[in-house]
Each structure stands twice: as C-alpha cells, then as structure tokens.
Request: fold
Amino acid sequence: MFSNISLYDVSVWVLPLIIAITFHEAAHAFAARQLGDNTAYDLGRVSFNPFKHIDPFGTVLLPGILLLSHAPFLFGYARPVPVNFRNLRNPRLGMVWVALAGPATNIGLALLAALAFHALPLAPAETAKWLADNLKNALIINVLLAVFNMLPIPPLDGGRVAVGLLPNVLAYPLSRLEPWGMLILIGVLIVLPLAGSQFGLNLDVISSLVRTSTGYVIRLLLVLTGNM
Reply:
C-alpha cells in the first residue's frame, strides 16, 4: 500500500498539516484568553509552537497514513485546547466565538496559500514544484480541517457553535453528546461505510458531504484570489 510513497510525498504533506493544526489550536487558545478565560494561556497553549498542540499519533501519523494510502476519509486530532467556558465574559456567546476561531483561522491560511500561488514565478526553478505542492496541500488541508470541524457534532467546533446558538431545548441534549462525540465520528466515518459496503450500500454520507463542501470552498477561494 505504501510502496510508492517517497520522502518528497511526506515533505509536502506533513509541513502544511502541522501548520494547519498548530494555528487552529492556537487560535482557540488566543480567542479564549481574549474573551476572559486564561486556562489555555496558563498552560502555554497560546503559542505557535507545534509541540504544544500536536499529538504524535492523532496529528501526524493517523492522518498521514490516511492521506498517503488514498483512504476515502480523513480523520485525525490534536491535543484539545482546555477552555473553561464559565470564565468567559459571556459564556454562551463566547463559546461560539472560541469555537469559530479555529476554522476561521484555517480559512485564512487557505486564502494565504491561494494568494501565494501568484508568487511562484519568483521562486527558484529547482524549488518551485516543491513550494507549489506545499501550497496546494496547504489549501486542501486547511479547507478540509475547517469544513470537517464545522460538523454539528460535539466536541467538534460546529457542535459547540450549535450548542451556543440553539435554544436550550435543543442545545442541552446536543451538549450531552460531547463525551461520545469521537465514537459517533468513528461510527459514521468508518464503521457505517464499511458495514454498508458488505451489503452493497453506499453509507459514506458524511465523508461525501465533507468532500463536496471542501471542493466548493476551494473553488471559491481560487476564484476570489484570481487563480480560476
């Protein structure tokens, strides 16, 4: 499965992935501090040092294996940023802004990557392809990370946004799913599609939705930056 993977492949995927996840988590920590909670700051998480945020398996190894093996889904995780929402000046609305900070930062990084394509003619010929592949992968990874994290399933960012915005009658039961959120994701992303394939059914609904949405956002960013 990995016989055609080279060091070049690793070099153009791992760096954009680490940057995307580091900035995502640092943005959560920074937003929490700005809105009144110093929990992450006191633990040194308001930082662009990747070692403060990455989980060796969940951040690098697992998504790297899935990407390089052309798996039909991408899954990974970083060390979660601890936030005490009760410390926020407006706990419910603050939770929404803290949650949105990560995906918004990824969209910003994707926009910068798309703009940087215009600077490639200035790069030395021997490094232009490597830079182009890094920028392309940065665009894909950041948009994918933003879209995936906006799924309305706690503890993903979209789940916390939904809990913050929905009326209590809907927000409370949704918030109670948070301890089971990762199991739910594994079920809908991995177990359900595998089970469906045994019966000739395509149950890969969530992955298809994420891929389609990611494609639309990437095309929009390319149009906005004059690359299409």
